[in-house]
Structure formats: structure tokens, C-alpha cells
Amino acid sequence: MQDRYHHEMSSRVSLIAAEQAPVSARHLFADGDPGPLVASWAQVPELLDTALPFVGMILGASSLSVRYKELAILRTSALMQCRFCVNAHTEVAVDVGLSESEIRALRGELPLAEAFTATTEVALLRWIDAVAGGRGSVAQDIADAFTGQFADFEVVELTMLIGATLMLNRYASALQLPNGADSIDRLQRLGYDTGLLGVFA
Q: What is the pTM of this model?
């Protein structure tokens, strides 16, 4: 399975292959490589029972638009300088239709104001920057602008999404989880830097 990954940096833990997977996790490997998150969590199978459903629910389809979710995930990951997550979600952002200027702004390679002008998205991005990049309470003007644009259930879900992304960012960065070689090749063909990126690096 390791051959499917880009080897500029190697993972700090072994990524479990299908033939090594514990019995309780083998169904996750039935369709091939489940990705480095699952392959690392399989070191502690009990994690799969809680972490996988949680991450699937938070990052998966919901009442929020895919666009809003990717704004939150990619921007948070860039702020945290998480190479694995930035690369993975740059590819997702391309696939769900974000423009190149939007993607580059989220990654910190362009000012946000050059790519985002809609009041709702500006409020969301200011909230993301304050929650993911700040400490302590969020400034009242940023909170007011955000909660004024989104319903309470959206505020809860988007904030939980930012928090879950922060957790995954630190996990993936600390363990140097690798991206797939095919993904790295694709991003490089599209002209994206796949190292630590932008103004946050």
C-alpha cells in the first residue's frame, strides 16, 4: 500500500495494509486502500469505532452546502499549515467547482478580498480565521457578522467542522501522513505547490 503514496516525507507510523488489518477493520479495506487516516487509525482498532463515524458525519454530506464546508476545511487547514489536508482539500475544492483564485486565496496565496466579496462568505471566512487562527473568545463584531448571516444550526455545524478540521490537521501533520502519489501529480500539473504553502508557511 505504501507505493501508492507520495514519498517526499514518510509517515511517522506504519500505515496498515489490508493483509495486516485487524479483523474488525477488514471491511474498511475491502475496496482497496482506505487512505492514510484509516490506515493509521487501524493501529488502534477501537479508534475506528468512534473516530471514523465522527469524521464521516462532520466532513460528509449534510444540510450545509459543499462549498461552505470546503471553504471551512481548506482555509482552516491552510492556517494550520497541514500539508496533507491542504493537498487533499485543494483537490476536493477543484472537484466541487471552486475557482482557481478562490482556492489560492483560501490557501493563503492571494488576499481573500481578491476572491470573495459575497457578504455571507466574507463573514464565514472571518469566523474561520478567528476560530482556527485565534485564541480565546472571538471578537464580537466577527461573531455578530457571522451569526447574522447563518442560522443557529449552521453556526453549530460550521464551528464544529472547523474544530474537527483542527484536530485532523494536527494529527496528520504530527504523523506526517502522506498524500496519494496520483493526487500530488494532479495538483502539480494544475500548478499548485504541494509543499507547505502560501503566506502561512
A: 0.92
